[in-house]
Write a structure and sequence with these properties.
Blueprint: E1 8-14, E2 21-25, E3 31-35, E4 39-43, E5 46-53, E6 56-66, E7 84-87, E8 94-98, E9 105-109, E10 117-120, E11 125-128, E12 134-137, E13 148-154, E14 160-163, E15 168-170, E16 175-177, E17 182-187, E18 195-203, E19 207-208, H1 210-216, E20 222-226, E21 232-235, E22 238-241, E23 251-253, E24 256-258, E25 264-268, E26 270-271, E27 276-282, E28 292-294, E29 299-301, E30 306-308, E31 313-322, E32 327-339, H2 342-371, H3 378-403, H4 409-441, H5 450-480, H6 506-541, H7 547-561, H8 565-574, H9 576-603, H10 607-614, H11 629-634
Parallel strand pairs: 7-12, 10-14, 19-26, 20-25, 23-28
Antiparallel strand pairs: 1-6, 2-3, 3-4, 5-6, 8-9, 10-11, 13-18, 14-15, 15-16, 17-18, 21-22, 23-24, 27-32, 28-29, 29-30, 31-32
Helix pairs in contact: 2-3, 2-8, 3-4, 4-5, 4-6, 6-7
Family: Belongs to the G-protein coupled receptor 2 family. Mth subfamily.
Subcellular location: Membrane
Membrane topology: Multi-pass membrane protein
């Protein structure tokens, strides 16, 4: 495409951004573009390209059109001013560049000099700014004031003009900005024609308390507030200039549209919302969040059973892009202040505190399992996996509560990780329930091989990690599938990250989260009932003798309490066998660290003392151990309620009815558990 001439503007029309454009391509190749404000007959002087936005492809047209100069009555002539002051966004010797990582504007060194054109005179015309009359304020790092909304304007999309009096005219919105509300600069580009960027600031409306609202509202009037100033509308809760006509609110009697009351007064501003939180209610959020302005000024959200007083809310039109229709839409949006619920705040604080304690205890428990090898039998590895999944879920939940992740890709990723970790913890609990049932239902006289135990744990890891991964992948697929496949609002669409960093709707939470929990929990209950029946039969026939109570207590507490991090930790550390194993491990580690320092002393010790030390009884393990009532009587701790067996073999009791439960360490958890 050719470069545009001095009396032409390079314009980009797209089916995504404003102004909306319709392309009509003739068989001869000539093109006509129709917008909301004009019709352009471009002939053959144009080019097409496609741009990608939010995963969608949009058709874009670039062309040259005759320059249109807006007429401003009473504008001073450039000949009658000595200086035209304006602020440059970057320091002298630098121009704007696009940061590829942040997609924001940065300043970079450049030898290109640039001055803007100036709108002046009556009738109005556009002329280059003479260098001798240019007063450049180039402090750099321009930022909008705290109560102002920033926006970047591109000369190819939004027509704006520096006036001879130092103000900026944004022609599309018919808004004039004061000199302290904008800066101008040039974007570095291979094109010889400068692409001017305007960084502008729009003032927000005031915020009112309830008392201020009552003072502004005339007596016996129905008052409601417009969130933005006149000729402005909402865009993602920010106020931007509007290209449409003056907005008026729509009144309802419940959900039925009614005429505007005669005593209606429109105010401007938002609620101060002291001691509360602002909530957005709009059709763009969901069909259940549609607000209805009532004839008495209240705002009702009937599908959520919510009603707000007039002083709590503001309402305005909002423009948003609908992915399902691939079009921009304008809807009515209400921003309402919900006073803080003290009881809910206390409940949230207690919940966050308990979650924090839980994931800290889970971390300590995982660290102990990593330090003490004897605890890492198959059942211990199952419990470690369950605790690890819960630790991640609790940590992410607390992180989201403390930091409040904003809606977007990061929020979606957090929701997927939360879903996966909670479902994985659920399935590991199912594995442990199966382990308990299998252990008591299939008693063996010989210990299984290490290879068999390892393969069993691998199989169950594939089940407990793999099935949740498959469910999470399906959740992501249904969430990001195009809207023409699964419409917005359908139960099958999870709406992950729409209103919060998890499943947004109650129906979605029910089908994608609670239904799997109900199913797996039901299966766990069946395993528990089957295990209890097996123990009852064993007690009745006296096949397990005095060992059954310790095993039953330990597995019962695992099933009931494995889902709570703090309680898991207390039960884990509260077992005497676990404490004994941990003590032995740390004593062993301590002795290893002292060997080098005491070896020399031991070699020069007295021979009699050496003989006395070697004659002391040492701990031995009998290779063939049988269960007997006398052996049990001699052992006082619940750790010794199970008799250990070595790989050398196992003797069966003389009666022939009792069977050993082989283990690989002092932990009462059986080593051959089928978890």
């Amino acid at each position: 495409m050719r470069e545009c001439g001095p009396n032409e503007d390079q314009v980009t029309f797209t089916t995504f951004s404003e102004p909306r454009a319709a392309f009509e391509l003739q068989p001869s190749g000539e093109l006509t573009v129709t917008t909301d404000s004009d019709v352009y007959h471009l002939g053959h002087d144009y080019c097409f390209r496609n741009i990608e936005h939010d995963g969608q492809i949009f058709e874009t047209l670039r062309c040259c059109v005759p320059k249109v100069v807006p007429q401003v009555a009473g504008l001073v002539s450039i000949d009658n001013v000595t200086r035209v002051a304006f602020r440059k966004c970057c320091p002298v010797g630098q121009l704007l560049v696009v940061n590829r990582e942040t997609q924001d504007f940065d300043c970079a060194n450049s030898s290109v000099s640039w001055l803007p054109e100036v709108l002046h005179g009556d009738p109005t015309s556009l002329v280059p700014l003479p260098p001798e009359k240019a007063e450049i304020r180039a402090e750099g790092d321009f930022r909008c004031p705290q109560n102002a909304v920033p926006q970047y304007l591109h000369s190819d999309h939004n027509k704006f003009f520096l006036e001879a009096n130092g103000h900026l005219l944004v022609d599309l919105y018919n808004v004039t900005l004061n000199p302290d509300r904008f800066c101008l600069d040039v974007l570095q580009s291979p094109s010889p024609k400068p692409q001017v960027i305007g960084h502008v600031c729009y003032d927000e409306t005031e915020r009112h308390t309830e008392e201020q609202f009552e003072e502004l509202c005339p007596s016996e009037s129905v008052c409601t507030r417009k969130c933005c100033a006149a000729n402005f509308l909402l865009s993602n809760t920010y106020c931007i200039p509007a290209t449409t006509s003056q907005w008026r609110p729509t009144f309802h009697q419940e959900e039925l549209v009614v005429p505007e009351p005669d005593n209606f007064t429109l105010l401007y501003g938002r609620s101060e919302c002291e001691g509360g939180h602002n909530f957005i209610f709009s059709r763009r959020v969901g069909e259940k969040d549609v607000p209805f302005l009532q004839v008495n000024g209240d705002i009702q959200v009937p599908r959520l059973n919510l009603t707000f007083k007039a002083h709590q809310c503001c309402i305005d039109s909002e423009v948003f892009y609908d992915k399902s229709t691939k079009e921009n839409h304008v809807v009515e949006t209400a921003i309402c202040c919900q006073p803080e619920d003290l009881e809910a705040s206390i409940r949230e604080y207690v919940n966050s505190t308990l979650l924090t304690i839980s994931f800290i205890c889970l971390f300590i428990m995982l660290a102990i399992y990593m330090l003490v090898p004897k605890l890492r039998n198959v059942h211990g590895k199952c419990l470690m996996s369950h605790a690890a999944a819960l630790f991640v879920a609790f940590f992410l939940t607390v992180f989201n509560q403390l930091h409040g992740v904003e809606l977007g890709p990061g929020c979606d990723a957090l929701g997927l990780m939360l879903y996966y970790s909670f479902i994985a913890a659920l399935f590991w609990l199912n594995v442990m329930s199966f382990d308990i049932w299998w252990t008591f239902a299939h008693l063996r006289t010989q210990s299984p091989s290490q290879r068999s135990l390892r393969n069993r744990f691998i199989r169950h890891s594939l089940y407990a990690w793999g099935v949740p991964l498959l469910m999470t992948c399906l959740l992501a697929f249904f969430n990001y599938v195009p809207y023409d496949v699964i419409p917005k609002g359908a139960i099958l669409r999870p709406d992950l990250g729409e209103r919060k960093c998890f499943l947004s709707g109650k129906d979605q939470e029910l089908y994608y989260f609670y239904v799997p929990i109900f199913i797996v929990t039901g299966v766990n209950i069946l395993f528990f009932v089957a295990t209890a029946y097996t123990l009852y039969q064993a007690e009745k026939s006296s096949r397990i003798l005095n060992r059954k109570r310790t095993a039953r207590d330990r597995y019962f507490t695992d099933i009931i309490n494995a889902s709570q991090g703090l309680l898991i930790f207390l039960l884990f550390i509260g077992r005497s066998s676990t404490r004994q194993t941990i003590r032995e491990r740390f004593v062993e580690l301590g002795r290893r660290g002292l060997i080098d320092s005491v070896t020399r002393r031991i070699r020069h010790a007295d021979k009699n003392d050496e003989a006395a030390r070697t004659s002391m009884p040492t701990k031995t393990t009998n290779t063939n151990t049988t269960v007997s009532s006398s052996a049990t009587a001699r052992k006082g701790s619940d750790n010794e309620a199970y008799q250990m067996t070595e790989k050398g073999g196992t003797d069966r009791p003389k009666g022939g009815d009792e069977q050993e439960l082989p283990t690989d360490g002092p932990d009462p958890a059986p080593a051959d558990c089928a978890c």
